[in-house]
Amino acid sequence: MFISSTELSEIIISAPAPVLFLDTCTILDIIRSPFRDNISTNEISASLELINKSKLNNRSVWLVTNEIVYTEWKENIATVKIELTEEIKKAELKREKMVNSANIIFDFNHDFGQVIKTLNLPEHLKNLSKSLLDKCEKIAIDDSHYVEAMKRINKCDAPAQRGKDSAKDCQIFAAFLDIGKQLRNKNFHQNICFITTNYQDYGKPNAPKSPLDQELISINTKYFNKLEWGLAIIEGRV
C-alpha cells in the first residue's frame, strides 16, 4: 500500500504525467463542500474528473499523497461525515419552517421539494472521498521526512506555527518536496503541484512573498488550495 519516494519516482518517470500531491484536508473537504462557505462544490466534480484521469489504462495525472494523510483520513472521516449529516438536518429544519411560514401567510400548501436527507449525501460523498484517496499513490513515512519536518519546526517555516503541533503537516510537506526533487533530478518536465486547503498554515497561493515561494521555485513546483485548480493545470487552462 505504501511506497518509498524513490520507487514512486521511478514509476512516474516510466509513465510521465502531471503530479498532484493531495493533503488530508483537500480529500476530506469534498464532504464539507455542501455546507462550508469557503469550499466550492466544484471540488466534487473536480474529484470525479481526477479519478477518471488517473485510471491506469488512460492515465493523464498521477495522484500522490503519503502515509500520514491516509492515517489522518481514517481518523477523521467519521467525524466529517457526521458533521455533514448534522448540517443537512439543520438546513432541512430551516427550510421546513420557511415553507410552513409561507403556507400560513398565503393560505396555500406550497410544495416542500426534495428532502435532502433521503439522498444519503454524506455516504455518497464519503465514498467519493475514499475513491480519491484510493487512487493516490501513498508515500511511506521515511526517517528523512521526519528530520526535514523537525528542521521546519525549529525554524518555524510554513506549515509550522508557533504554539501548534505541526509535526504531521511538516512531514507531509517534506514528502512532497522529496518526491518533487527526485522527479526533477530525473529530468521530469511535467507539472508538480501541492494541493491543500489549509492556507492558514501554508499561506495563500500566489500571495506576495508567500512563505513557500523559495522552496517551490527551487524545484519548479506549484501550490494550489483547490482541486479544481489542479485539474485546470492538467487540462492546460492555467
From TrEMBL:
Annotated DUF4935 domain residues: 20-202
Recite the UniProt keywords alphabetically: Coiled coil
What Pfam families does this protein map onto? Answer: PIN_12 (PF16289)
**Domain of life, source organism:** Bacteria
Coiled coil (UniProt feature): 74-101
Matches recorded under InterPro entries: DUF4935
Record's protein name: DUF4935 domain-containing protein
- Record organism: Anabaena sphaerica FACHB-251
